[in-house]
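[Meeting: bench + compute handoff]

Bench side (C.D.) handed over the final construct sequence. Compute side (W.E.) agreed to return the predicted structure before the next meeting so the bench team could plan truncations. Sequence as handed over:
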Amino acid sequence: MNEQVLAGRRVVVTGGLGALGRCVGAVLASRGASVALVDRAPQSLVEGVTVVIGDTDLTDPASAEAAMKVAVSSLGGIDALVNVAGGFRWEKFEGGRIETWEHMFAMNVRTAVIACQLAIPHLLQAKAACIVNVGSLGAVKADVGMGAYAASKSGVVRLTETLAEEFKPRGLRVNAVLPGVLDTPVNRADMPDADFSRWVSLEALARVIAFLLTDDAAAVTGACIPVMGGV
């Protein structure tokens, strides 16, 4: 891939200070994009990106709006939004709590909805604008203990599809990636006996996201793309 294939693109990445968010930001910046990372974690220095906006509660419209205003001002507009923000909680249905379902919905769906609501008015002013949401293969087939998480990620898929249809006539593309198990320190600690070589590396997923932001993907919208590695 041309290393400057995203030159001139201005991209907001939510969940930008997590392991995946940082990797996505680095890959996009390496391809020429100007990147704003937004996260609930305290602001920190991240080499290569234009701005880091910390201490943002993406489940709160006011907090998210303040962060988006800083991002727009810092980047001079927005051409793309990548919704990485989210979380996972394993809990069996039997003996589980309704609060877990509410928490997963807030982390995985509410954050994406709010970010999209705030970004879309700016995206509609840009050329070749697009949104990429990070879903999960769990949205296609859930396993034991994944009910709340999988249901919330299914919400991300449906959000992606409906936005793609609504804004297709106005030139805004909306897609999602559905990763399998990501190779992160947390997942390695939780599943120490697994074959890590079969998992999806963070950079591999970031490269798929980067492709979806390029002109080569101009004909792709409403797609929910499995990124499952060797699992």
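W.E. noted at the follow-up: The radius of gyration is 17 Å. C.D. will use this when planning the next construct.
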